């Protein structure tokens, strides 16, 4: 039946009557186009889950139909998805939350769900995926090579071995040189294919060298050896052959990427070029009249000053002269290292200290744009210059094999995506988070604009908006405040980065744009395509075909001749895959870089090591709870206000009594920020992660901030405990006072765990309670016990005065025979200090045990000697002070070892 595709719709007509049978709206977000690799059919699923199957006869025709359908589906009219709140999109009232249309919300949720699928496809390490996973996720249109490989070479391994092996031992290297020379002559860009894979060719130990290849190409341009008589005869190559060879030589001389191949054998190659290809030095990249021998010879003899003896060509094009000297120096630094090395410059030195910008350590996206006065387009341009510098620092052929080059690019991409997600979640109010989403979307649209074409940054923004912590189910109030214009832009980005066709739209756009203007491709697609091509070996066996004709039939047999040759088809497909990367590396952007912004982008990965997926997930769950409660409170307030207004307008009762009136002001407006119930804001927690290295130190800062607030529940309990201890110091026994202290500390600890346990996990990064709860208990003891430590110590020393004297005399009597006496620098002298907390003494004892580092018997003897020669005259009361006032089961095991050794030393002296 006839199928007509127009802009935005597909019309299907009946074959007999030519009447319209069905019409499909391609701009409907519920319409999906699907297909299966190596099959000629494609399926269009409509809103009612009806399927339309089109048989295109061949996979090639199917790809043509897909291109037509994707083109018709692009550029939807956004007026159909407008909402009622366009006139007051930036309002801060609750009425805005309930006036958005249902169609817009469903479209946005579908778009973000598609972004989430895209994110699961792009946030990965290519080297960790199998070929089946890559086919299923990124390359559904790529034909499988495994079947062809099994037929052509059933005895060969799937890939060439990593170690160099001699494949062509029985054969001379001249055969491979002739094969490469013939491929260069007959194939457009064949010389670049060979230069791209030159490391692969040399690792095969085929005996092929670049000077020898140049000699063979020169000989094939002029002479030919007769196969029968062996006489040298002149060979007249075609114009295409000479053009391809000239391009190969000029790429060696002048191409910013392939000229690096001359470094291995520079002198020999230049000697051959000067002798056999002098015309290739005259003009750079001229393909018009390269094959005029008489003109070239006269030009060489008449203008000898134009002949360049040799100098390695400059790798930057003339357009880079617009860049500043600072950017040029930074680019040289990056090119001098084999991988991307980020400097450790502090962002605080780059950030201007202003009153409005108090978050100078790790600035979010909106803060960066406001501080440096960058529009979304300007920020996208600065990111483009930085990403272009990252890309040009790598050799093009490094993409052929996995290594630290790809790891650096992958880590930088994932870290940029994490930074964008964190820039949204770090905002405190839903309005600020909505503005951050608008900024990320604006940066994505600016990155895909003309003269920027940074698809690497576009996919980073898509991966950010498709992250689970930013879904509307997690941030419902935030997405209510996102502008309708931003949601329309999201739908436009969805049509560009739809992964259902293997990112076919994005790949086509990258390929078309890279040939005409500067662009940066998304390297995830390139890496997946190269990973898929690894299933085919570089060396395949040569086959011979024999035909046997009989009276009844003709039989054709294909046998393995035992010879091997290079698989130039695989090399050519890899070059075609990397062609967009080659164009990106050789075409510079005519933009001016800002050195401070480039430093910021360069040091950002090291500054954001704390932004782990676990931290972002916890922050998202906290925001989900607060925003859901705010939405429910807003709905309840609106309902209460409407009911009260109806109640006021109702008539008086029958007995004339006045009716009670209640206004909507009785319902208090809930806070739209999620930081009200926290000890430290999420931004302050990120500052802690950035400035404080140890988790226990961050936890201690959190506890100190908790008790600094006098109105918090733990602070009130601590004040009550201090008052009770001062009261019972003169009215109760030491045992009763210690019991009261222990119970009070336990109650405060449980309160802190219940009220701020989530923040403790957030600032430490430890999910296991057995890891962070002992450290929390020690921090609570340090903070709460300090004001009453001296009172408890004095009371215990007064009660155990006689026991301390007895233990002291015993220890000194046992230590009379020791040769070493510690008077100064004895760590146990700290036992006599007043005002120390039990945890501080435990840490001191643990450090002594760690320094002794001996068996239990020897450590006990040495510890007893230290205790006898110290100035501490109250060992018994110090032991009771530590063991009776705190719960040792809640402390770390390393600290408990110290008090155990002290008990054994004191008890051993009394025996």
Please, could you describe this protein's structure?
The structure is a single chain. By secondary structure, this protein is mostly helical. The protein has 5 domains: 3-77, PH-domain like; 157-255 and 258-306, no CATH class; 320-535 and 574-611, Ras guanine-nucleotide exchange factors catalytic domain (Son of Sevenless (SoS) protein, Chain S, domain 2); 692-788, no CATH class; 800-909, no CATH class. 54% of the residues lie in helices and 6% in strands. Helix 15 (376-392) crosses helix 25 (595-607). It starts with a strand and ends with a helix. The model is unreliable at 78-103, 124-131, 133-171, 283-360, 544-562, 652-672 and 817-824 (pLDDT under 50).
| Biggest sheet details | 3 strands, antiparallel
Broad shape: elongated
Unreliable sequence segments: 78-103, 124-131, 133-171, 283-360, 544-562, 652-672, 817-824
Number of structural domains: 5
Tally of helical segments: 37
Going by CATH, the homologous superfamily of the largest domain would be Ras guanine-nucleotide exchange factors catalytic domain
């Amino acid at each position: 039946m006839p199928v007509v595709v127009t802009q935005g719709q597909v019309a299907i007509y009946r074959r007999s009557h030519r009447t319209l049978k069905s019409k499909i709206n391609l701009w409907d977000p519920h319409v999906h186009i699907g297909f299966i690799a190596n099959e000629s059919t494609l399926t269009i699923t409509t809103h009612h889950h009806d399927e339309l199957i089109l048989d295109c006869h061949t996979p090639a025709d199917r790809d043509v139909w897909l291109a037509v359908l994707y083109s018709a589906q692009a550029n939807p009219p956004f007026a159909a998805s407008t909402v009622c709140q366009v006139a007051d999109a930036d309002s801060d009232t609750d009425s805005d939350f309930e006036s958005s249309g249902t169609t817009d919300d469903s479209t946005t949720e579908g778009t973000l769900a598609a972004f989430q699928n895209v994110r699961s496809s792009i946030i990965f390490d290519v080297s960790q995926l199998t070929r089946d996973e890559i086919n299923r996720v990124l390359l559904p249109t790529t034909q499988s090579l495994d079947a062809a490989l099994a037929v052509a070479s059933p005895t060969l391994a799937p890939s060439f071995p990593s170690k160099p092996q001699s494949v062509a031992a029985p054969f001379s290297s001249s055969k491979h040189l002739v094969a490469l020379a013939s491929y260069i002559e007959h194939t457009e860009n064949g010389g670049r294919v060979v230069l791209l894979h030159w490391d692969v060719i040399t690792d095969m130990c085929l005996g092929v060298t670049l000077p020898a290849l140049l000699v063979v190409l020169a000989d094939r341009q002029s002479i030919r050896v007769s196969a029968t008589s062996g006489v040298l005869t002149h060979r007249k190559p075609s114009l295409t052959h000479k053009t391809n060879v000239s391009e190969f030589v000029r790429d060696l001389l002048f191409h910013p990427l392939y000229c690096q191949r001359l470094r291995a054998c520079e002198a020999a190659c230049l000697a051959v070029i000067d002798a056999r290809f002098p015309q290739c030095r005259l003009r750079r990249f001229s393909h018009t009249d390269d094959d005029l021998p008489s003109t070239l010879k006269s030009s060489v003899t008449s203008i000898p000053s134009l002949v360049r003896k040799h100098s390695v060509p400059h790798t930057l094009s003339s357009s880079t002269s617009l860049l500043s000297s600072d950017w040029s120096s930074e680019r040289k630094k990056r090119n001098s290292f084999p991988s991307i090395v980020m400097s450790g410059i502090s962002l605080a030195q780059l950030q201007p200290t202003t009153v409005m910008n108090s978050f100078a350590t790790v600035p979010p996206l909106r803060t960066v744009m406001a501080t440096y006065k960058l529009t979304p387009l300007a920020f996208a341009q600065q990111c483009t210059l930085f990403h272009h510098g990252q890309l040009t620092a790598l050799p093009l052929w490094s993409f052929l094999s996995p290594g630290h080059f790809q790891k650096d690019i992958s880590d930088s991409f994932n870290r940029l995506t994490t930074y964008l997600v964190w820039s949204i979640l770090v905002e405190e109010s839903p309005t600020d988070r909505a503005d951050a989403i608008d900024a990320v979307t604006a940066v994505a649209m600016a990155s895909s604009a003309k003269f920027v074409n940074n698809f690497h940054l576009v996919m980073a923004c898509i991966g950010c908006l498709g992250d689970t912590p930013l879904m509307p189910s997690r941030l419902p109030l935030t997405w209510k405040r996102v502008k309708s214009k931003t949601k329309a832009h999201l739908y436009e980005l969805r049509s560009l980065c739809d992964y259902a066709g293997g990112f076919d739209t994005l790949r086509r756009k990258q390929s078309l744009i890279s040939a005409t203007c500067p662009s940066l491709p998304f390297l995830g697609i390139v890496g997946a395509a190269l990973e898929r091509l690894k299933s085919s070996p570089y060396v395949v066996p040569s086959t011979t075909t024999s035909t046997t004709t009989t009276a009844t039939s003709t039989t054709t047999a294909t046998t393995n001749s035992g010879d091997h040759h290079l698989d130039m088809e695989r090399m050519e497909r890899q070059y075609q895959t990397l062609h967009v990367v080659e164009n990106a590396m050789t075409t510079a952007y005519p933009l001016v870089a800002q050195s401070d912004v480039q430093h910021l982008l360069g040091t950002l990965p090291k500054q954001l090591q704390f932004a782990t997926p676990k931290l972002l997930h916890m922050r998202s769950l906290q925001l989900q709870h607060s925003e859901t409660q705010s939405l429910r409170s807003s709905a309840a307030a609106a309902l209460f206000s409407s009911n009260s207004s109806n109640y006021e307008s109702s008539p008086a009762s029958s007995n004339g009594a006045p009716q009670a009136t209640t206004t909507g002001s009785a319902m208090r407006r809930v806070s739209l920020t999620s930081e009200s119930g926290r000890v430290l804001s999420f931004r302050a927690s990120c500052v802690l992660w950035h400035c404080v290295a140890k988790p226990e130190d961050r936890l201690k800062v959190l506890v100190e901030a908790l008790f600094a607030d006098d109105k918090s529940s733990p602070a009130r309990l601590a004040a009550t405990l201090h008052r009770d201890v001062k009261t019972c110091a003169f009215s109760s026994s030491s045992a009763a006072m210690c019991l009261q202290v222990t119970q009070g500390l336990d109650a405060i600890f449980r309160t802190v765990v219940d009220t701020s346990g989530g923040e403790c996990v957030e600032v430490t990064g430890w999910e296991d309670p057995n890891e962070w709860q002992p450290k929390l208990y020690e921090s609570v003891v340090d903070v709460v016990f300090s004001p009453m430590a001296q009172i408890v110590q004095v009371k215990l020393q007064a009660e155990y005065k006689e026991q301390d004297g007895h233990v002291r005399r015993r220890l000194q009597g046992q230590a009379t025979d020791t040769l070493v006496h510690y008077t100064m620098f004895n760590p146990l002298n700290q036992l006599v200090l007043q005002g120390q907390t039990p945890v501080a003494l435990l840490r001191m004892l643990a450090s002594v045990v760690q320094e002794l580092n001996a068996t239990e018997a020897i450590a006990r003897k040495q510890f007893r000697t230290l205790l006898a020669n110290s100035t501490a005259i109250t060992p018994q009361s110090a032991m009771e002070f530590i063991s009776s006032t705190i719960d040792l089961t809640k402390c770390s095991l390393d600290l408990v070892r110290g008090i155990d050794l002290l008990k054994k030393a004191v008890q051993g002296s009394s025996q």
